[in-house]
Design a protein that fits this description.
Blueprint: H1 2-14, H2 29-36, E1 46-48, H3 50-59, E2 71-87, H4 95-104, E3 109-113, H5 119-130, E4 135-139, H6 143-152, E5 157-161, H7 166-170, E6 174-179, E7 204-212, H8 217-231, H9 234-242, E8 246-247, H10 252-273
Parallel strand pairs: 3-4, 3-5
Antiparallel strand pairs: 1-7, 2-5, 2-6, 2-7, 2-8
Helix pairs in contact: 1-8, 3-10, 5-10
Length: 277
């Protein structure tokens, strides 16, 4: 959705077609690898996320590309928070309830995610080790199956991205206990951040634009400037808000520094939790 929205706006701004070529698979590495091997002329770009840029390098011993050497960061474009969420039929009314009940659970309170090594799992693992919350990870093969079991009451808690949760929260089927962004989100304004709850941790599913390494700096600067123009469009901001996210922007240097911090954060979680792929 983010890529298609950007492509539409950039097509209008550049007055030439911008084509989205979906290359799913291998946790985003197929698409990222294809861009890394492309000509560094600025005509092939990647919309990348934490998985293929900052998480996979710590999970997989071998990758077909090196995100730190083969891709040039241009700018972030959007970020979406995750939620710690519970079925409303459970006795969990707050994050405090979750912490308290987890300490009485021998094996921990089960929490669903979209899979092993997912950002959702990493959030749960951080909470387990740093927030004195006893959690048991239950990985699913994607968000859909996890959502079905959460709504059906087969599992009490999940860590998921905000967007697919919004209709279920509004319908009263799910209760959000905490949000992982640094500030509250307009889509769920009553949900406290982890920082408000006393935990110094932030995690968002961000998306950013990358070019093959070696792309001329003036081309990268021009693309970054044009991205800032289209991201300032009120229609783009409104679309992001409907999806539970917000636009983001930074210079290539700032984005590079941010990615380095993200890699350090997630690498430590993966090592501490001994997550293997």
């Amino acid at each position: 959705m983010t890529a298609r929205l950007l492509a539409q706006k950039l097509s209008e701004y550049w007055k030439q077609p911008v084509v989205v070529d979906n290359r799913p698979g291998a946790s985003g590495m197929i698409g990222a690898g294809a861009v890394a091997r492309s000509a560094n002329d600025g005509y092939t770009l990647l919309i990348g996320s934490p998985a293929e840029i900052a998480i996979n390098p710590a999970l997989y011993p071998k990758m077909a590309y090196d995100p730190f050497k083969d891709l040039a960061p241009i700018s972030p474009v959007a970020k979406f928070p995750l939620l710690v969420v519970a079925n409303t039929q459970s006795s969990l009314k707050s994050f405090k309830d979750l912490a308290a009940q987890s300490r009485d659970a021998k094996d921990g309170v089960a929490f669903a995610t979209s899979g092993i090594g997912s950002m959702q799992q990493l959030v749960g693992e951080w909470l387990k080790r740093n927030a004195d919350i006893n959690l048991l990870h239950v990985p699913y093969k994607g968000t859909g199956p996890a959502m079905n079991d959460l709504l059906g009451g087969q599992i009490p808690v999940a860590v998921m991205g905000l967007a697919p949760l919004i209709p279920h929260i509004k319908a009263g089927n799910l209760r959000a206990l905490a949000i992982t962004s640094s500030e509250r989100n307009p889509a769920v304004p009553n949900v406290p951040t982890l920082k408000e709850l006393g935990y110094d941790f932030e995690s968002t599913i961000w998306f950013g634009v990358f070019a093959p390494e070696g792309t001329p700096k003036e081309v990268i600067r021009k693309i970054g400037q044009d991205l800032r123009v289209v991201l300032a469009d009120k229609g783009v901001e409104e679309q992001m808000l409907k999806l539970g996210g917000e636009t983001a922007s930074a210079s290539p240097e700032e984005f590079t520094s941010f990615i380095s911090d993200e890699f350090a954060k997630y690498s430590k979680i993966i090592k501490d939790a001994n997550i293997k792929m």
